[in-house]
Design brief:
3 helices, five-stranded antiparallel β-sheet, alpha+beta, four-stranded antiparallel β-sheet, about 20% helix, about 190 residues
Length: about 190
Amino acid sequence: MKKVVGLGMVILTVLASPIHAAAPTPGSADDPVVTKSYLEQYVQGLGGSVGTGGGNGLTESKIKEIIAQEIAKLPTNNGGGGTPSTGQGNAMKVVALKAGQTILADAGSELIVRNGKTLAVSNDDNGIPDVTAGKDLAAGTVVQNNHLLIFPRDGRGVKPDLKETADVYVMVRGGYVVQNADGSKVPQ
């Protein structure tokens, strides 16, 4: 009988004790709650320290400095030597093309023809992606107005149709060059 009572006590002790599961690491994908210790470790990895107001902590000016350094490391989108877009950040620039002129976009630039009849221009067999229509435009293809074109490489663009006499307006985001019919660059 003593053996049964002793065995019962062992079983009750095991069942009554709390079960400890492995706790996930704070701040991990399993436990996304950010703890103070995780934040301090992260800030120290950035080269700062979290203080208690004693002047040695990560200040607003230090954060701005770190952000400015990271922004300066970003590549510019002007690999083709054209005119980068100006104004506020990613604003589109309106460009007027006269008869005989061609606008050549830099790689990564975007263009929308606003009026007139224009033709796609390419220095190779590959076309220009018309993302509005969902197709590539080969050289010499008519470009539909108000369609977004994205230029994956330099040397592609649009030009007014030979029968077009009025100025053609396009909107451009990114670098570009406007050329006259003789190949000379139009100053911007």
